[in-house]
Design goal:
Rossmann fold; single chain
Length: 383
């Protein structure tokens, strides 16, 4: 089947087969539990500086009391919004009068319970341990005294990052969907012709593993790219032995995208997993992707479609720009909003506006794994 409807059914079936060992109906409840612990951690981090013992505070006063680094001020503002929506912080949006009392013992016990709650749900212990580390270090993370990378790679290895991007249930699901989409794309190539792939922001290679496995029967021209020398070295270590793979520095914000790495109009697949939300302009980045694709080529974009408290209290710190540098969304419709993630509808509109036709997505909005909000979008360049 080569129709859009056929692709949608095909990738969702393949993704479901990848997680048959997990009761996915239980996962939304576990996600809510993690989010609740994250909210407790935010409240604890604010109260630990003596705030909300009486009187009211503005966002600026809260930032001063917590010594929040300038580049993380936007995260603090997102916390205040999340706590308000959760009914844990009271105020009028500009002045805040009361915050739910959370002590270190309550937070420690709630975080400790995550390991047991996640048993049997395909959520790696290393990832739970990372979240617990992040939650307990929130005051230092706000001050920029501790970098979240130090917590993510606390053992000097990539185990926790593997848990975040490859070995948990939702990423097994979306990576299996991406792999099936890659097989679908490969079927349209002439016999013996390599499948020409560019992966943007490949990181630890969580998606790379599944894609190279899916394309193992034929030749490939697979370009693994990232902005981090660490991840490029890790990619060479993990995938350098596969014929047809090469490695290069590439920044998703470059204009033109891919200059010096791949030629325009030559890619059968462009893959971007958990990276395009970081673009200064999603619109410009997607136009750059379109220009790299051959006619009929496919973009496989995996991204988070809504902001979760557990991300706000951990990985979101990776997204704060260095002083004087633009941040995610600074040059598109997100500018001035402190938003990072696009909704499902916004992704589909952005793809169409860039000249890409959405063909399929997984999971669907009615699937239990949509609670995690990590979604694969497959979109085609038609001309």
């Amino acid at each position: 089947m080569t129709t859009a409807e056929g692709l949608n059914d095909r990738i969702r079936a393949a993704a479901d087969r990848a997680v048959t060992d997990v009761d996915v109906d239980r996962l939304p409840g576990f996600m809510r539990e993690i989010d609740q612990v994250a909210l407790l951690a935010m409240a604890w981090a604010l109260r630990s500086h003596g705030l909300f013992r009486g009187g009211s505070h503005t966002e600026s006063e809260i930032a001063a009391a917590t010594r929040t680094a300038d580049r993380h001020r936007w995260i603090l503002r997102r916390w205040l919004g999340a706590l308000s929506r959760a009914g844990m912080l009271w105020g009028d949006g500009s002045t805040f009068t009361r915050l739910r009392a959370v002590g270190r013992r309550e937070l420690r016990e709630a975080a400790h319970g995550l390991a047991a709650s996640g048993e049997g749900l395909g959520y790696p212990e290393a990832m739970v341990a990372f979240l617990r580390r992040a939650f307990s270090h929130l005051p230092a993370l706000l001050r920029d005294d501790v970098a979240v990378q130090a917590l993510l790679f606390a053992d000097g290895e990539a185990d926790t990052a593997d848990g975040a991007y490859r070995e948990n249930t939702v990423n097994r699901y979306v990576n299996a969907a991406a792999a099936e989409a890659a097989r679908w794309a490969a079927e349209g190539r002439p016999a013996g012709a390599p499948v020409r792939v560019l992966e943007i922001g490949a990181g630890v290679g969580g998606t790379t593993t599944d894609l190279l496995g899916a394309l193992a029967r034929g030749p490939v021209d697979y370009v693994f790219t990232d902005v981090s020398p660490y991840f490029l070295d890790l990619g060479r270590e993990r995938f350098g032995g596969r014929p047809g793979t090469r490695f290069a520095f590439l920044d998703a914000n470059d204009t033109p995208l891919g200059k010096g790495v791949v030629d325009p109009g030559t890619r059968d697949l462009v893959v971007a997993a958990n990276v395009l939300h970081n673009a200064h302009s999603v619109d410009a980045c997607l136009r750059g992707v379109r220009d790299l694709l051959a006619p009929g080529g496919l973009l496989l974009c995996v991204d988070t479609c809504r902001e979760l408290p557990q991300i706000l209290a951990s990985m979101q710190f990776l997204m704060s720009p260095r002083e004087g540098r633009p941040g995610p969304g600074s040059h598109d419709f997100r500018a001035g909003t402190d938003r990072v993630f696009l909704s499902r509808r916004e992704w589909e509109a952005a793809l169409r506006n860039a000249g890409l036709t959405p063909l399929a997505s997984a999971p669907g909005p009615d699937h239990p794994l949509d609670a995690v909000s990590v979604t694969l979008f497959a979109a085609r360049r038609d001309a």
